[in-house]
Specification:
The complex is a heterodimer of chains A (about 160) and B (about 150). By secondary structure, chain A is α+β, with helices and mostly antiparallel strands. Helix content of chain A is about 40%, strand content about 30%. In chain B, strand 3 (about 95-100) and strand 4 form a beta hairpin. Chain B starts with a helix and ends in a 5-residue tail after the last strand. Classes of the chains: A alpha+beta (about 160), B alpha+beta (about 150). The interface between A and B is large, with 68 and 69 residues. Strand 1 of chain A pairs antiparallel with strand 1 of chain B, so a sheet runs across the interface.
């Protein structure tokens, strides 16, 4: 991994910016005035700093965290896929095809024993089995698939130690 | 609760931009501000919307390495499993702890500044966890797709 790339990409962030980001990580529904208060500055400079960090792409946006089980998606499976790398272009072809499957929520390429991991959601075990048979096992260049089924989430906190 | 088309439209709008006001989310879902506000409140109370999150660019903040760990726990009995879960949850660099069924018992996501930092976390924090068994590390290279469910 080219670590100098990471360092080059790192932006100048000062302690005030960090306080703002920490406040937003704790509660993303805060208004600018509330963030300013938590970070110990007044509203206008706080707003300017947030604007700047959004422009620089440090803050990518805000989203809501949704509980899929409450929406009827009772089954979450993490698939760990090994790709047949002896075929030229196998990776690209696999990922292009997997992107088109709506039940696959995320696709990540990895360095390790596993090449690709994917999050798959389904309404039930029968539904999962159907997705697996009709959509996943047909994906090109799959050498091996291993599944981990989610039982419970013990921790889910994306906060960075800023 | 079973969300209807309006709920789904509101959720879609809020997934794309969690800072939308009830009024703006309502415009996208084709309902008035008071209706949107009531619906969003109901989705929050039902636990469908668990909260709002700010999305940050980890690399730009100096966190260049994300590693997924598959962990086997040799602990037996409820007490020792709880002890493991408590200890792993307390590690700040571990963002995600999921109890899973399959070749591993737990799935962890660790965010570190670089590989050296990751190695330190692995050696000092993870490998010293009570009941820790086999650990497999896979370093994240790229995110090819990351989207919420197409509800």
């Amino acid at each position: 991994m080219d670590l100098s790339y990471t360092e080059k990409n790192m932006l100048k962030i000062d302690d005030t910016d960090r306080r703002i980001l920490r406040a937003l990580q704790r509660d993303a529904s805060l208004t600018t005035a509330e963030v300013a208060e938590a970070a110990g500055l007044s509203t206008t400079p706080c707003w300017r700093r947030i604007e700047r960090m959004e422009r620089d792409g440090v803050i990518l946006g805000r989203s809501v965290d949704i509980d899929l089980r409450k929406l009827g998606f009772d089954v979450t499976v993490y698939l760990r896929v090994r790709i047949d790398k002896t075929v030229r272009g196998a990776f690209e072809e696999f990922i292009t095809a997997a992107r088109g499957v709506p039940e696959i929520l995320s696709i990540q390429t990895l360095l390790g024993r596993v090449d690709v991991r994917m999050d798959v959601v389904a309404r039930s075990l029968e539904h999962y089995q159907e997705i697996l048979k009709t959509r996943i096992l047909d994906l090109p260049h799959v050498a091996d698939v291993e599944a981990l089924m989610l039982i419970s989430e013990v921790k889910n906190d994306e906060s960075l130690s800023l | 609760m079973t969300p209807d088309a309006t709920d789904v439209a509101l959720l879609r709008a809020l997934l794309a931009d969690g800072s939308l006001t009830a009024k703006d989310a309502g415009v996208q879902a084709g309902v008035s501000q008071p209706v949107a506000w009531r619906r969003i409140k109901r989705l929050e109370e039902a636990g469908v919307i668990r909260g709002r999150r700010v999305r940050l660019d980890k690399a730009k903040l100096g966190f260049g390495v994300t590693v997924f760990l598959g962990v086997k726990v040799s602990a037996r009995g409820r007490g020792s499993v709880e002890e493991f879960e408590r200890a792993v949850t307390a590690i700040p660099e571990v963002q995600l702890v999921q109890h899973v069924l399959g070749v591993y018992d737990y799935r962890l996501k660790v965010v570190a500044r670089d590989l050296e930092d990751f190695e330190r976390i692995l050696r000092r924090r993870i490998m010293t966890l009570p009941g820790i068994g086999e650990v497999e590390s896979n370093v994240l290279l790229s995110e090819e797709k990351n989207e919420p469910v197409r509800i």
